[in-house]
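BACKBONE STRUCTURE TOKENS:
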Amino acid sequence: MVTVNDYSGKIRPDWCPACGNFAQLSAIKNALAELKIEPENAVVVSGIGCSSNLPEFIRAYGFHGLHGRLLPVASAVKWANRKLTVIGYGGDGDGFFEGTQHFFHTAKRNVDLTYIVSDNQIFGLTTGQASPTSEIGFISKTTPDGNIEKPVNPMTFALSAGATFVARSFSGDPKHLQEVIKKGIQHKGFSFIDVFSPCVTFNKTNTYDYFRKRVYKYEAKDPSNFEEAYRAVQEWGDRIPIGIFYQVKSQSYEDLDPVTAEETPLAERPYRKLKPEDFEEFL
């Protein structure tokens, strides 16, 4: 029997009080426990940022990587042992600035992992600079006269790249967040979940109240309809939808690659010591 307590780490989170990351940590732990996934069979890979400290606060395997480079590491973990449940976790700066190219290619390959982004529309760890999702006019340390760059839409980006599960949730709605993460983990293929996660210290615009007045639960008529999903994720303003926008069945990278497709994971296969003649054969 797996319980949420099995995922309780020894180190207490040091995020700012009321940070949206607390809700995400709880949702991930509860989702894994509900799915009866043992801690030794779960891996959380992160990049750099406030949110990316999460692997230190959960009792599971973890890898705290480089800024924007969590997805290559998460992919490698999955390819080495496809039996593991792999979760990539980082912030909007980490994923949509430094890590944009990795986001695209991991989605395109349909690697069987869940990528959760704590989207607070600011660089929180470095004390409040504009991020790729900051709105036009946003005042920050790097944009004192207001942000002049059009914000990226990570949802349309994920859809265009080929993600087979695209969803959005809100840290202020823990039950919805947990259910979306649970379904993302269950999905076979690349799951992308963008989570509105207010930075209570440095972002005084996109607050909990800001999102509570705007978000509403979206129910797709046909989750496999790409055009419907693409239209829905572009709604922004007085009403912002959250939910599962797109989900289709498609073979994952691990199913298609002849090496990783074998029943026995790479990590469990016997190895042999290479001899000089082996190198000659390679040449």
